Amino acid sequence: MELNSLFFLCSASLLFISLVKIVCSNRRKLPLPPGTLGWPYIGETFQLYSQNPNDFFASKVKRYGTIFKSHILGYPCVMISSPEAAKFVLVTRAHLFKPTYPASKERMLGKQAIFFHQGDYHAELRRLVLRAFMPEAIKSMVSDIESIANDSLQSWEGRQVNTFQEMKTYAFNVALLSILGKDEVPYSEDLKRCYYDLEKGYNSMPINLPGTLFNKAMKARKELAQILAKILSTRRKMKLDHKDLLGSFMSNKRDLTDEQIADNIIGAIFAARDTTASVLTWILKYLGENPSVLEAVTEEQEEIIKGKEKRGDEKLLTWADTRKMTITSRVIQETLRVASVLSFTFREAVEDVEYEGYLIPKGWKVLPLFRNIHHSPEIFPDPEKFDPSRFDVAPKPNTFLPFGNGIHSCPGNELAKLEMLVLLHHLTTKYRWSMVGSHNGIQYGPFAVPQNGLPIRLSSKS
Ligand code: HEM
């Protein structure tokens, strides 16, 4: 009897091993997605950067369809550009695709920052970040954001400004408010200076030798961590309870280390600034080019002021006012679609994955191409046309992904939308602006922005 069981066990094991082998060899037999890998090592990196990256991706999609392979920045990649594939990678099979960034970027932003993690540590950080940025938490910030917006606009009046640079300052100040609260204003100039150096190094060659931009950026990062350590120590001494992101991190029961907090604060400011600033810059360009849309936005914003006057409400904007800005919100959505400032993101397959009969090999990078989904004529007819009314009907699931999707989707999206609405309210009701010089080109660094940051002249309506 015992021998029989042993025999049965051995046969079953052999059968199992053979089955696994068959499945594995089938996996190996699966074809790779269509496409070309280009030259050894450099792959198609030059093709990608020698032209507009969007043209590179669009020509590949046209030739190979919504899933294709390539080789860029030293890695073999699979690029995907259908809503279903984006859902597969970012939502339903998210555990098979980990976020991945070049090691130099991880070092610069801080290895413990939320973007680079999966699992329990990521879930815990995400809970803390969402707590600080959910509508309930940011509602109380409307009037402070409003005063930052008014100060910015007043400072541009009567001179030529680089819209993107000015929007960066605005988005930076709002980010500081939401992340560190109002008390840390004395540090804001030092923080700004460090960020400026960090940013210059972020897009430079990662060579850490004295004098290089990368080296300066690493020093700036160190200084940022020191400033944050000072703020942390003051808050601990004073035993103050803050509702901002830093407060959320500090109130966590399973204590985060100072290094983990610093990496996540630096990362959040980084995630918040250039993204929001480039979207705002595109909004000014599209409104400037579409006078009827600008008129509709202005009317909507003037109605809000008139409504408040009629009711005898305070002049300051409230969260409830921002919920009435339907047309302005459509303009923001359409700008997020057309400009697609984050045109794709990176993941890495943690094991061999089969998708639609193709093999995505373990270790390969996977790039969901948000911009190509947003510019697909099947999903958004006449995709190059700026038409905010297309958002009168909610887009189908997984077709509109300016803030990503799934467990790594943007936790700051409500704040981003709020600060855009507040700025647009004051801009359209009090000022007029004109674009200076040609405004047709695009520059990438790394986010797409209009050429030369969109120089404009702003003047008061009154
Ligand atoms: C219009 C402005 C913004 C855009 C277009 C944007 C877009 C995105 C996208 C696409 C992702 C997901 C990336 C991925 O899946 O790989 C993301 C993640 C993230 N964003 Fe934003 N973002 C914006 C503003 C903000 C703001 C204002 C904040 C914070 C104050 C913020 C904080 C973050 C953080 C912390 C993550 C990482 C989340 C995680 O890994 O779990 N973002 N953002």
From TrEMBL:
Keywords noted in UniProt: Heme, Iron, Membrane, Metal-binding, Monooxygenase, Oxidoreductase, Signal, Transmembrane, Transmembrane helix
GO molecular function, a single term: iron ion binding
Gene Ontology CC annotation, any one: membrane
Residues that hold heme according to the record: 410
Listed EC numbers: 1.14.14.137
GO biological process terms on file: abscisic acid metabolic process; sterol metabolic process
Keyword Cytoplasm assigned: no
The protein's annotated pathway: Plant hormone degradation; abscisic acid degradation
CDD domains linked: CYP90-like
Uppermost EC category: oxidoreductase
UniProt similarity note: Belongs to the cytochrome P450 family.
Name used for this protein in its record: (+)-abscisic acid 8'-hydroxylase
